[in-house]
Specification:
The complex is a heterodimer of chains A (118) and B (112). Chain A has 118 residues and is mainly β. Chain A contains no helices and 11 strands. In chain A, the strands form 2 sheets. In chain A, strands 2, 4, 5, 6, 9, 10 and 11 form a 7-stranded mixed β-sheet that branches. A 4-stranded antiparallel β-sheet of chain A has the order 1-3-8-7, with no helix packed on it. Chain B contains no helices and 11 strands. In chain B, strands 2, 4, 5, 9, 10 and 11 form a 6-stranded mixed β-sheet that branches. A 5-stranded antiparallel β-sheet of chain B has the order 1-3-8-7-6, with no helix packed on it. The radius of gyration of chain B is 14 Å and the shape is globular. Classes of the chains: A mainly beta (118), B mainly beta (112). At the A-B interface, strand 4, strand 5, strand 9 and strand 10 of A face strand 5, strand 9 and strand 10 of B.
Amino acid sequence: DTGVSQDPRHKITKRGQNVTFRCDPISEHNRLYWYRQTLGQGPEFLTYFQNEAQLEKSRLLSDRFSAERPKGSFSTLEIQRTEQGDSAMYLCASSGVGLAGVSSGELFFGEGSRLTVL
Amino acid sequence: TQLLEQSPQFLSIQEGENLTVYCNSSSVFSSLQWYRQEPGEGPVLLVTVVTGGEVKKLKRLTFQFGDARKDSSLHITAAQPGDTGLYLCAGYGSGNTGKLIFGQGTTLQVKP
């Protein structure tokens, strides 16, 4: 399967603990995105990378959140000192250029990592 | 900050009915995308509209991009239970940015 994969799919943690999510994008995609989504709502942009460079980060993202994409391939999203308000689905997506060297702009999403903070 | 407002937020209809979902903004977008998301899965792209006034059809779904490229609509004809899901419009922010922002979504429930 060459889709976007996320791990773990579910994480239950206690308030104050740190959690880390991993995303493996479609291999030839140079852009990688992280979103947060609560039930019945649209995905909220967190950050995105082009290759290994983090190009934009939401102002909504507190300093407890950090994302990395060290080699321009997989990415990790870490949440430190989790709070109950962090409970949500964390979605990863990737996009890339097509054969003509032009991006269609389509994002391909993983199935998400659901975080529950008790 | 560019925002996309969707309406309605929730729609529950009977099989066979028609419906329209709206996506509005005060900002101009170079293009708008529509995604559909089913429970437990990530959103999947349905269509991208690029040209002001453009109309695209995907079987029973008709997508329209406003002339001023500030709004879009999705019309479903003769809805079926398989159309149930969360419908999302999305657009790239102004300037040369790769940031894709989403509307708050419209949850559609089609009852048999």
